[in-house]
Specification:
With 157 residues, the chain is an alpha+beta fold.
């Protein structure tokens, strides 16, 4: 009986160790190429997906954002709406840009240039048309900005 309990315990420990090793290997591989790097936020009426062209963005370099807006109830794209994206750093400096409606249905574009590296609080506001109030998600998200090339520095070795 004692040997059976020890064998069962060793098998359980071996299974746990194997699971931890496998999980570590998958974690070390990083996100798959199919991973969606966009940030999803929700307002009362909209699902908004925000994606930057560079991940993570770099300071002192323009970052282009693609924003896809869908009606939360119908899941239909929202066309010709109005919105803006903005970010604030720990020093209280805020940057923002208005949305430009893109060629894709329900897709908008904006551009931000972060002044400093570090963590920035980000958010968006959106409305279907100018007769309605802008809606903002309940929570902002945090974006880490990496140091970019300083003015006058060469990017060549």
């Amino acid at each position: 009986m004692r040997r059976t309990k020890e064998t069962a315990r060793l098998r359980a420990v071996a299974a746990l160790a194997t699971a931890l090793v496998v999980a570590g290997v998958f974690a070390a591989c990083g996100p798959s190429s199919g991973a969606d790097p966009s940030q999803r936020v929700y307002t009362r009426d909209f699902e908004i997906r925000v994606r930057s062209d560079v991940v993570p963005p770099r300071s002192l370099e323009p970052t282009l954002y693609t924003i896809v807006v869908r009606d939360k109830k119908t899941r239909e794209p929202v066309v010709n709406g109005e919105g803006r994206i903005f970010a604030t750093n720990s020093d209280g400096k805020t940057i923002y840009d208005g949305f430009t409606y893109g060629p894709e249905v329900g897709t908008y574009h904006a551009k931000l240039m972060f002044l400093t590296a570090g963590e920035w609080a980000m958010s968006v506001q959106f409305r279907r048309d100018s007769s309605l109030a802008l809606q903002k998600p309940e929570y902002d998200w945090r974006q880490e900005i990496r140091a970019g090339t300083e003015p006058g520095e060469s990017t060549r070795p």
